[in-house]
Amino acid sequence: MRFVQSALRSLFTPLILLACIVGCSYPGSANHVGLATAGRAREQAPATEKPAGVDRGPTDAELKSDDSPVDRKMVYSASLGVVVLDIEKAVAATETIAGEFGGYVAQVRTNQITIRVPAADYRLAMDRVSQLGTVTHRTVDAQDVTEKYVDLEARLKNARAVRARLEALLQKAEDAKAAVEIERELFRIGEQIEQMQAKLELLRNRVAYSMISATFQRVAPQADVPAARELPFRWLRELRPEYLLSEGY
Description:
By secondary structure, the protein is of the alpha+beta class. Helix content is about 55%, strand content about 20%.
């Protein structure tokens, strides 16, 4: 009996070891079901869904929503040469035109005047000045200053933010030396802000008011030429007295 038990034990022991090895190498049915379910969930997930904690950038729809038109900043100017009978009257008339359109006179010389008018009325005002005489030349210029305008606005905004932080630090300064250093930096930033504000204001004025410069030249009026008298007799007209006089007869 003991021999039989020993034989059975020696037979089943390798089978039990083999079953354990196979069980460790191949997961059970429950693990297989979990992995398969997770795989199908990943395959069925929408392509646009972003994993948690991962930023893949804006979508096409988001980019289109931010695509707003840019407000272009344009500077218009014109230079005219006009021949007139009276320069003083032409200069005065140009000043009147500037006032009618809500503009102003920027510069006046002997025979030259520069006015600025609202950009919306730029063409109309230029045509009015051209009608004061005979235009000998006309030069029209348009300049896009959008990039410069946006850059100045951004730099001014940043400078103001730096000034605000320095003012907050000045309130917390613990000694006189630190306070002096902060005040010195505040003075420097303040000067930069004033300069940028002046440049931005000048640029805004150039965009809002277009420039028209007119140079007037005087032309002498032609003297009235008296009409030639008609001779009373035909035979006198046939003699052509003007011809005889020109030949010295």
